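Researcher: Re-running this chain for the archive, since the previous output was lost when a drive failed. Same request as before.
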Amino acid sequence: MKLENSRTLKIIFITGGVIILLAISSFFLLSFWVKHKLVSYLEEHTEYNVHLGFVSIGINSAEVSSIELTPKLDKESYQQANGYQKDWIVSKIERLHVYGINWYDVVFNKKAEIEKVIILQPDIYVYRDNTLPNLYKYKALPAKLLQNFNFPFSINSLDIGKGKIEYEKKDEKGTTASNIVFSNLQASISHIGSDSLFVIANPVMDVNAQAELADSIKIKIEYKVNMLSPSDEFTLKGNIESFNAVLLNQYIAPLSTFEIKSGYVNSIHFNMDADENIAVGKLDMDYRNLKINILSKESPGKKSELKTLLTNIFMRDEDKNEKHQDKPGGEIRFERRKDRFIFNYWWNSVKSGVLSAVNELPMDVKTTPK
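Model: Regenerated structure tokens:
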């Protein structure tokens, strides 16, 4: 009797081991197949060379050790081949994790319900040559992009860690190039989806993010999107911590009539409502010891000494009292360029508020950048 029980146990253990090995082998083969198919599809249907690291698929999860998408043409050849302005993008992700996914639904029901996605160390570089003619091509905002997405999916939460976004632009004259870098990006996004039932149950996509601009200006934002809005309505709130005010020159001074010589911005707070067409809102800026050169309209680049003197007297902190300036209110007003992505919309809307607060230009004067 004991011998029979022993044999039965051995058979059970051996059978279980074989099943486990077959399961592991099947997942390994599935991972290899998915990697091969994904790379082949992307390289055939896009302008990118694709490199994927180790791909591991589990019962309800997936992991990719690295992802890299590189354009097949270098940025100069790419611009020449297109003949018009178009973003040249290189993107890398150090690691991607997907949790809580039903593979049966993906394969047989053609939809994906995902509990959580984690993206670690994304690095995105964007280059645009504005010396080339601009071929207008409509860019949808996130709500409309998801509404028109052909494959129904839903993601309850997505976390991004230690990211970097760099945007480089050659200006229309081809003489200089602006370079905007957001580093140490941390973000959490909830309720992303194209599945209509999921969107009805979770109509607001919520994004909370923080990053450093030029490695020194700390920015926090809260972005809420009404996914059911036919006009892509959203709100954007943000806070920018203290920094040397001279840093503003590289972002806004070329568009204004002033040049910041010295001083500090203690904080910037902004709040705006926007839709498919226009963003409007308020921006408050608290600063101290700000010294400005007013540029002469008659001779661009020439300082107007009298105006500069009066401005600095007016803006100077009270002697022997470390009293900060009152917060000037800026008006955010920016009409969206619909051939640009959402980040361009955000960036220029906030800049319109900064220009209004510091330069004190009336809102009926066109101050927003192209």
